[in-house]
Design brief:
- By secondary structure, the chain is an alpha+beta fold.
- It has seven helices and five strands, in the order H-H-E-H-E-E-H-H-E-E-H-H.
- It has a five-stranded mixed sheet with strand order 1-2-3-5-4.
- It is globular.
- It starts with a helix and ends with a helix.
- About 25% of the residues are buried.
């Protein structure tokens, strides 16, 4: 019961931090870079860890549901690096091009290959990141080594995330709904 209480307290704390960051960006701007930058400044990062945050390309208008899923993947990757890696350095890289790419790299101890494949009992971080990426049509890759740390990379097709690239004839809400339905059908077939 004590362990369950500790897990619930931690989940509430992480949830509140994520909601506060999302709420600010959702109500004020559509700025994924600013939301991710706040994660690296909100006391999650240990003082001993150096952080590099880079944005390449011009920010573009994004669908908020897809943007929020990307944010949650980035938040989880940053949080995991800070909590589990023992790293000295963390790099967060956001790239706007034809597609959107988010990379989170650390120079820590890496992740046990069994955990990379199956996740860790009682933890849903990696599984949740994979599910979120699949839900938005993104490709999530995770490379980890005890010699070089961990790199998580997410690529989301521009036609899914960027509003400008969508046909004006089809409402955005319908495109997002259709995307989720097609992902659901695909996962039900497997």
């Amino acid at each position: 019961m004590e362990q369950l209480s500790a897990w619930l307290a931690k989940a509430m704390q992480e949830g509140r931090a994520a909601l506060n960051s999302l709420r600010t960006t959702t109500t004020q701007t559509n700025d994924l870079a600013e939301a991710l930058r706040r994660v690296t400044e909100d006391g999650v990062i240990p003082n001993s860890m150096a952080v590099t945050f880079s944005v390449v390309g011009d920010a573009r208008e994004m669908h908020p549901i897809v943007r929020d899923e990307i944010y949650r993947i980035g938040y989880e990757a940053i949080h995991n690096a800070c909590t589990h890696s023992g790293a000295n350095r963390l790099e967060v890289d956001l790239r706007y091009a034809n597609d959107l790419a988010l990379g989170v790299r650390d120079d820590g101890t890496g992740i046990d290959p069994a955990v990379v494949d199956r996740g860790k009992d009682g933890h849903f971080g990696l599984q949740g990141m994979r599910e979120r990426a699949a839900r938005i049509g993104g490709k999530l890759t995770l490379v980890s080594s005890s010699n070089s740390g961990t790199e998580i990379k997410l690529i989301v097709p521009g036609g899914i995330i960027f509003r400008k690239g969508m046909s004006p004839r089809t409402p955005l809400s319908r495109k997002i709904r259709d995307l989720f339905r097609s992902r659901e059908k695909t996962s039900n077939l497997n």
